[in-house]
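Bit of a strange request maybe. I'm writing a small parser for C-alpha cell strings and I need a real example to test against, not something I typed by hand. Could someone generate the C-alpha cells for this chain?
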Amino acid sequence: MANSLAATLQALGAVAASGSGSSVDIGTLRRAARVSVDVLALSGTNPSLAVKVETSADEVNWRTVYAFASITTASRVSALIGDLSRYVRVAYTLGGTGGPSVTWSSSIEAHVLYCEPSHVTKYALPEHSIAAKTIEERLEACLAASDEADGFIASAYEMPLVAWTTDVTMHCAYLAGAVLFGARGADLNGPDALVFHNRDMALKWFDRLANGRVKPPGIVDSTPETFEGGAVVESSPRRGW
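Reply from user aminoacidic:
Good idea to test on real output. This should exercise your parser:
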C-alpha cells in the first residue's frame, strides 16, 4: 500500500446528539477506503447509533456512499467503500430516549486503486460471471491487485505514482479478475483458464515494467522535476592517468 492514508473521522468520545465528524482530505487519487466505526458504550433507553459515510468534491455538496446498519450494542464494524471524492466524513444519528449517549470513534484508511470494479468487467471478466459478488468483494479484489502491482512498480519508480496509464489499469484488472475467480472456484481446464492466463500475462508485464523493459510514457512518479537552487559541480571524465 504505497499511497495509503490513515486518519480519524470521529475522535473517541461521548455524543448526546446527532451530528457529523471532521472532514478528511484523502486527495484526488484515493478512490476507496476502509472505514471503521468503534462503539464502546451506549446509555439511555433503547439507544442506537446510525452512521453514514459521506463524500464531497468541494466540502459543500455531500453525498452518501455507504450506511452502516444501526448499532445498538458495543461493537466494531467496518467496510471497504469505493466511489469516493476528495473529502470524506461521517454523519451520525443518535436514537433512543431518556437522554441517550454513545461513546464511539471512527477511522479511515484510504487507498489508491490502479483499477476499479468497473475496469474489471471492462477488461477482465463479463458481468454475469461475477454477478453474485458484492461491490465490497470487488473492491477487495482491486485493492489486492493494486497492492501486488505496487510490488513491481516500486522497483522502477519513485512511489507513490502521480499518474498511470491505461495498460497499468488493464493489467491490474486482470489480476483482480483472477482474485475474484480464485475465491469463487474456477475450472482451469475450461473457459476459466483464460482468466488465469491473463493473470500470468499481467504478472509478466509488471515484471518487465519493474526491470525497465516496458516504459509507458504516461506514468508519472514522485521524482522531483524542478531544481530548487544550489551549486552544481561538473567535472570531465577521468583520463586514467
